[in-house]
Amino acid sequence: MGWHDALAAKSAEVGKTSSEFKAGARRKGGVTGLFLAGAVAVGYFAGWGWALLPGAVAAWSALQTMSATLIASRLEVMERQPRPDRA
Questions:
Q1: Residue range of the domain that includes 75
Q2: What Rg, from alpha-carbon coordinates, does the chain have?
Q3: Structural domain count of the chain
Q4: What is the pLDDT of residues 40-66, one digit of tens each?
Q5: What's the pLDDT band for 81 if we cut at 50, 70, 90?
Q6: Which burial class, exposed, middle or buried, applies to 75 when counting CB atoms under 10 A from its CB (0-12, 13-18, 19+)?
Q7: pLDDT at residue 87 greater than cutoff 80
Q8: In a domain, 87, yes or no
């Protein structure tokens, strides 16, 4: 079981759904775009050395977006399977 599988299982235990993770991934995707645009603007006006910080934040936000998307896809698979307690 991979790390995202374990996170999806834990999220399902506490009642989180795939739609919540999809919404979070969309929000993080927008934030990633803003930080990336900010990094380009800072790099253009102040020098590319100064753009490293917003660029690093954009990269971290992109990783969070991908992680939320992976967890959402695993939760979707879990939600499609019939649960034994609902038989």
A1: 3-81
A2: 17
A3: 1
A4: 999 999 999 999 999 999 999 999 999
A5: confident
A6: buried
A7: no
A8: no
CB 51 within 8 A of CB 40: yes
Give the closest residue to 50 by CA, choosing from 58, 40, 62. Answer: 40
Q: Is residue 60 part of a domain?
A: yes
DSSP 1: -
Task: Measure the CA–CA gap between 52 and 50, rounded to whole angstroms.
Answer: 5
Decide if 76 is inside a domain. yes
Question: From the DSSP assignment, how many helices (H) and strands (E) are in the chain?
Answer: 3, 0
Retrieve residue 68's tokens. 């939320």
Q: What is the C-alpha separation between 47 and 2, in angstroms, rounded?
A: 40
Give domain status of residue 40, yes or no: yes
Query: Residue 16: left if φ>0, alpha if ψ -120 to 50, beta else—which one?
Result: beta
